[in-house]
Structure prediction request, 602 residues.
Amino acid sequence: MNKINLLSPLLSSRIAAGEVIERPESVLREFLDNAIDAGSSEISISIEGGGIDSISVSDNGGGILKEDLEIIASRHATSKIKEDDDLYRINTLGFRGEALYSIASVSELTIKSLDADTGRTNSITINNGIRNEMVASSPIKGTTVTAKNLFAEIPARRSFLKRTQTEAQMCRNLVISKALAYPDISFKFYSDGALKLNYEKASSLKERVMMLYRPMGIQDADVLHLLGNDEDYSIDIICTSGAAKRSDRKEIRIYVNGRAVEEYSLVQAVTFGYGELLPGGSFPYASVFIKDNPELVDFNIHPAKKEVKLRNHAQIHHAIVLLIQNGVTRRIPEIKAVQNEFEFIKDAPDMKQEHFFKTFSSSQNSFSHNSPSQKLSSAKTAYSFNAETRPKDDSWIVKAKELSRIKNEEKKEALGEEKKEEAKDWKYIGQAFNLFLIVQKGEDLYFIDQHAAHERIIYDELLSQNTVQKLLIPIRLEVEKDIDEFLTSYSYIYTKLGIMIAKTADGHWEISALPAVARQIETQVVNYISTNAGDEKELETGIFAIIACKAAIKAGDEIDRYSAEALIKKVFEMDEPACPHGRTFLVKLNEKEFREMVGRTK
Prediction:
């Protein structure tokens, strides 16, 4: 008896449906994609029983012609593409012709639509793969699609669904996700007859995103709209300042060409842009909307189109980092007394920035330049700062180098001369929580983050001495095409940093030497090189910040008085007390303010 059998069309369709349709949310996603592709300005969603019993989506789009309705929901039936090359210039959310066919295999699917040519409304039902005759229907605008009794004939699949409340919440979250990217469309969402969401048309992306943020308690003043344009792509980022944060990354949303995608590296770009502006373990609210040249984008790698490949991934990653780094206000903490109470003032007067956001235009502030390095670094020109309010850390790495050079010259001049040790104008009080060094200087108390301060000290030392150590066994790494192209032209940047890197084949590189202090953290250094491209300043900052962070005194380390005082002395010699990540490590408390807090005056 033969062991190989041909599956029936219905069984094979249900197997295929399992890759696309996992739960009611999957059905709703496909319905919404089609409604948006139809050019709708109004979309209404209604679910029953968490979407298991019924999901219905109505739109006022262009409708479906009668002859198209006759073959709709057939396998690979689609209006989005016609030939092979269309796969490389997709401008729609749907394109494979699998979704409706899959839904019709596992539910009772009814499609009712207006034929714009005849002005008549037609309806067709496909019940678990069985197609009924098309019939005339009552007049409607656009199209209404309904799926009932999901997985009714596949009880094993149905048993894996969650509670109806959970499934309904997933559907609600999906509607929010879709609505954020399309402010020119109104969305209404009903669950078991009750209106749960009503997103009216919005005048801008920021206004639409604020429909989500305001109920969370986020104020308009705490939300920024950062803009960037390039020859091939544009970026809109709606994000919060340091005033609003959360303990997870769930509200960092990435959209590419109107589609929400799970692209962790771009989520990392957002968090890297914030750096240490937020406390450890805290994350921002950010919605990143990327419009990229369709020829550089490939969504055809995941059944649900949740993932994407970008040929210009490195440039977009870099642009996101720079937009946030230059656009989000840098803050220095200070403690103030207010009406016999005290509060945490996050904007110290001497560190306030004034941002004048400018869209990157192709004529002036474009990313599009002659070289990859120029193309990436030019994102920094997107902002114009007032000279009086320019952030102190904008060019601190250059200043640090110059300061190091001047100090070395001073040491040479003073060589051979006896130098009297200057009397300290500060007093070390002690260490708190094995993290903060407490120092009294004049009428002020200073709290110094020992880890961040030591990072900066090590960083400054690295700038002045690049001791290179050859590796007995070279480190081999494989990189993506965009990083490979960047390294081919700009590997000399790493050579200047003491990292000897050479190309062995397309996409393959070899590191033969590293700075001596980087030998224990070579994995982190290699990971950085494999995933980052940018100008010399940024790469130098990133590499040395990694090295300094790993070599510095850690939070929780108990240090003796001699070491503490040596660290404090170097901190007070700095012109700008900021760690290599750009975060200040000093908090100041004035004696007068302190006395007011406890109700004591001189």
Remarks:
- The chain has 18 helices and 27 strands.
- Residues 338-394, 416-422 have pLDDT under 50 and may be disordered.
- The two ends are 102 Å apart (CA to CA).
